[in-house]
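[SOLVED] Need 3D model of a four-part complex

Original post:
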Amino acid sequence: MSLNEETKKEYKPLIVAFCCNWCSYAGADLAGSSRLTYPTDVKIIRVPCSCRVNPLFVLRAFQRGADGVIIAGCHPGDCHYTSGNYFARRRMTLLFSMLDYLGIERERTRVEWISAAEGVKFSTTMNEFAKTIHELGENKKLRDLRCEE
Amino acid sequence: MDKFLQEQILRMSGVNTRKCMKCGKCSGTCPAYDEMEYHPHQFVAMVESGDIDALMQSNSIWTCLSCFACVERCPRSVEPANLIEAVRLAVIRQQNANHLKAQEIPENLEEKLPQQAIVSAFRKYSK
Amino acid sequence: MILSYYPGCTLKTKAQDLDLYARKSAEVLGVTMEELEEWQCCGAVYPMASDEIATKLSAVRALENAKEKGQDLLTLCSACHHVIKRVNHDMQTNADMQMKVNNYLQLDEPYTGETKVVHYLEMLRDLVGFDKIKEKVVNPLKGKKIAAYYGCLLLRPSDVLQFDNPENPSIMEDFIRSIGATPVETPYRNECCGGYVSMENKKLAQKKVDLIISSAMEKGAEMIITACPLCMYNLDANSTEHKLPIVYFTELLAEALGVK
Amino acid sequence: MQKIGVFICHCGTNIAATVDVEAVTEAIKNEPGVVYAANYQYMCSENGQALIKNAIAEYGLTGVVVCSCSPRMHEATFRKAAQEAGLNPYMVEIANIREHCSWIHKDKVEATEKAIILARAAIAKVHLNAPLISGQSDVTKRALVIGGGIAGIQTALDIAEAGFEVDIVEKSPTIGGKMAQLDKTFPTLDCAACILTPKMVDAKSNDKITLYTYSEVESVKGFVGNFEVSIRKKARYVNTDLCTGCGECTTKCPSRKAKSEFNMGLMNRGAIYIPFAQAIPNVATIDPQYCIHMKTGKCGLCEKVCSAHAIDFKQQDEIVEQKYGAIVMATGFNLINLDQFDEFGYSKYPDVVTSLEFERLMNAAGPTEGTLLRPSNHEHPHTLVFVQCVGSRDTSGCGKPYCSKICCMYTAKHAMLVRDKYPDTEVYVFYIDVRTPGKNFDEFYRRAVEQYGVHYIKGMVGKVTDKDGKLIVQGSDLLENKQLKIEADMVVLAAAVEPDPSARSVASMLTASIDTNDFMTEAHAKLRPVESPTAGIFLSGMAQGPKDIPETVSQASACAAKVIGLLAKDHLVNNPCVAQSNELRCNGCSNCEKVCPYGAISYIEKEVNDHGVREVRRIAQVNEAVCQGCGACTVTCPSGAMDLKGFSTNQIMAEVDAICR
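Solution:
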């Protein structure tokens, strides 16, 4: 795309954030209405609950060139669907250790609990995560080479 | 308004003066209040507005007891005592600006005066 | 129980009683105080400015020495306790300070706040236990009404020192009870005595001390105990109206344990 | 292939100032499937919606993407517009380019680039959208109000007024809450009991209202319109049908150690007690912790004196199961614990009291029968100091970061009442700011100063000590630039309010969200202030945030209106984004059934035709009326049979691909 020829040279990480509709997506909305900035690297996908995040989505993101994936849900005990975030936590713990084994650093994957009232936490978490990913640099592991330009 | 000094004070003290909500609890709590020209809440306000020269020339900076009552009781965690220490340091780090000079100590010595008092005062009042 | 011990300058000179009776009492209580082989003055005041590094090094050295021996570091003087505990907190939490201090000291293994700093009173409460002291008392100070004077340095800032409730402490009162005496609570027990400012402004110290002592007398105290040589000096030498005996708490402990 | 229309909103300058909307329009115009792209100043306006409707008709759109604010804001608006134009509403997707883009980014180039990516993701998703039809479910025409203070009572009365059954669950033995403890109310100085007790009586006598006092919500199941709640009626050890409320037992009870909750611990009560004279229901309750008979088997005096034979030491807790269509959270507040504020001497000096204790000391039904006396020596106080903001607006970790809102006004009230009743007193108020936004509020505060001569001091108290039986209040006067030491007889602390400790556990049961201070979160801070984001849960009173009585009552009625609106419906339209099982792929493992928090999945034996092979298999079946669409089953399903409509695996994958392109 021509719009961005110049800035393209600088490394811009790609971060996919899965946010549950009830807490973290609303937290992101609050960060927005409070004008709390975080890098454009973060792109949010809305899911009804953190337990809707299939490990396949995370794998796919890394295959397609994501440098970091974060899953954000309601605080333990506060899940809109009672227990979804507990499922997410267990699944992701397992998945992340497997990814670590495959060479995708533990710091590239994260689960965070961010409530609808925590706009500040959303923005600081995203800033921190983006900074971490920036320092780690591009993710080369698991990349589907057919996706390369 | 001295921007450079203000920044220096803020950096050294680690205090964010903007957190102050001007409740005056620090001054309500300060045990050395009556001996001070400027009081703890004024320290915060004056650093915030950059009026630092007046503070540096005031006796208040030598009167603060470093008892941390203002730090402990501040509802906004502003830490006025840290600011006062930073202003004091800004003064004594200047040339020949020690508030307590080594040669003055013998005349202050008393039979019972503990070393701790001399060391503390020397640390607080001289570089 | 063996603890590394940091006495501090004043305890070697003007406040020898504080030190002497602490050691004697510890023996009775089964605590071995191993004085650090090498230590320097802690500086007596905690340097608050973020760019003060050199003035904190002596505290770090003491902490490091205790770490090497794998022991907790026991302190007695309020000022030393205040400085060493706060510097230790810096070494635990302030990355900038950690880096600068360790770069300077060039230790084999960087020091990052591993040592636990324990005040003698904390030792009595947490490691020995006031109940055990009660058992060991041979000479209970029955009927003696004693006011505890905490001062500032033991209690504040409470989030770092974690010593006791900063506004309503009880450790010294519990101590007084454990040696059989009756504690007298005074409202000024955690207000400043005038500290080092007595060198500069004696009048201020006198005002503060008079308030502390008159309030203790009003509540019926016969004596005041303290853990700080500077408080001791101010309360003793700068009171103008009334006089009360001012005693180091360790002296009373030794008396109760029968080793004075 | 879908025919997709993309509509980009400027949102005035909210989006357009940071995102180059023209560039976005250009960039997505040529995306596969996009047949129409336009931008407009306010998409949510009538004209904006008309633009969408016209395009649907003109271009025969099968899918719509609106790039605008958060879907939590206007998804429903655009879906409705699409529906009006004949498109299935679930063919609309929102790309959030305001909250998640223009408002948080500064660089226009980067923001524009991100907006394009978000739009592409939405387009990719719409490609896989399918029309969804919502099912219906019935509404149980009964409401539950949790909390029987003024908020709960008002909400219940209003709901009952509309003709619906409503139950109040109150954990203490009487309804009335904090308002019953107040002496007078600002800004009109009505006596609280005079205006509250008639409402309490109304609540009791209304045949649509059932009171469950001394009861707690034990568990909540179900969803909007169909909640199943079990309520634990704690044993009172008194048969409430027989008890006449004569009070004979309460005066005879020899155990006098329990602190009276109603009088804030300023006096004791019997182990068998009626909280206060106007309690509703007016029946006795035995506190087993203090009852001599229950602890030792002796005594039993109450049983002997009760002519109604109402005492029943063998009574057990009772569980009541009930179905509700809507639930109201009206759990109220408490004052914070002042352990962290010992500089004010609350734990040490009996003459340092909280404002709520002060209400009791001024109240005719209080421990001093309305004569203000120092708790320490029962003498008349001459100098009173009020301290505001004790623990409010405190970010140090000791208190609460918010303003408690009610203290400025009640302190003015206290000061005024004291000066009015005892003109020989001097009254000082230490304040940080005096906040009086409200009808006739500032006038009220000024009256305290001008007419009653209350000394308002801009500053804060640092320490309270004592000398010769007097309290010495050391504080700052910032305007005079002085430190004051006031010799006072009493100090009254305006302690911060906090939500009742039960709020968190109740909110968890209701799966309603709660903020970092444990106040209930609204569905929208401005536009839906009495609803929780969880459908069917409504908010009333202090549970939602600090508020005074007039505001609580208004909110309680607003809440009732929302509940009535829900209960008036015969059917509710369900969320069609529910799970669905592909019967050919299902292997009958039961994993989905185990993770479903709603029990929406069951297994049936069904004949299937798998590529010509007909056989009976055990397969999962989703009850669409019960499924809430969390998606837990979709991820747990090992064979990929389970999917979630509206958030299908393929749709989310497509979004991932679009973002990572």
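Edit: Chain D has five domains: 4-127, 142-234+317-332+500-567, 248-305, 334-498, 579-645.
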